[in-house]
């Protein structure tokens, strides 16, 4: 069990979805559960179902108990080398986040920083991790430097 030190931000690389849908995708890949702890919705829940009021809503994914440690059953599957010491946040987005999603991200990350004493330097986009860099990732398709410098604690 390791101390929680990081938040890793992702995008789903899909234009629609939910925590339930991502859980289904990840279970189909043979994973134990959804890889992310928190999912930020856009309005497109299914390919044929758009609910604008859900844009920016937050859903819980993989359970975690709120203490400073990541137990074995809480370890995510979202960023190799960080899974056992981070919370994974994923927005339903392909190349561009909706403004409501960005606002929700800032609010939830600030709350998590306050609760878990996470420094803004330890809030990373998946593309900033070693595995993300090695894979040439652009995820989360946000300017994480700007978010850290102007929006985080």
Automatic annotation (TrEMBL):
InterPro entries per UniProt: Amidase/PGRP_sf, Amidase_domain, PGRP_domain_met/bac
GO biological process: peptidoglycan catabolic process
One Pfam entry name: Amidase_2
Ranges where the Peptidoglycan recognition protein family domain occurs: 1-130
GO molecular-function term, one example from the UniProt record: N-acetylmuramoyl-L-alanine amidase activity
Protein name: Putative N-acetylmuramoyl-L-alanine amidase
Native organism: viral metagenome
């Amino acid at each position: 069990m390791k101390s929680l030190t990081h938040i890793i931000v992702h995008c789903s690389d899909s234009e629609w979805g939910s925590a339930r849908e991502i859980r289904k995708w990840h279970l189909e890949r043979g994973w134990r559960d959804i890889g992310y702890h928190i999912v930020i919705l856009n309005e497109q829940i299914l390919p044929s179902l758009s609910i604008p009021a859900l844009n920016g809503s937050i859903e819980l994914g993989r359970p975690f108990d709120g203490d400073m440690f990541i137990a074995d059953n809480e370890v995510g599957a979202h960023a190799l080398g960080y899974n056992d010491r981070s919370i994974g946040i994923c927005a339903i987005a392909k190349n561009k986040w909706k403004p409501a999603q960005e606002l929700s991200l800032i609010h939830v990350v600030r709350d998590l920083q306050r609760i878990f004493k996470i420094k803004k330097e330890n809030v990373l986009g998946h593309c900033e991790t070693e595995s993300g860099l090695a894979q040439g990732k652009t995820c989360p398709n946000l300017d994480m430097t700007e978010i850290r410098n102007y929006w985080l604690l």
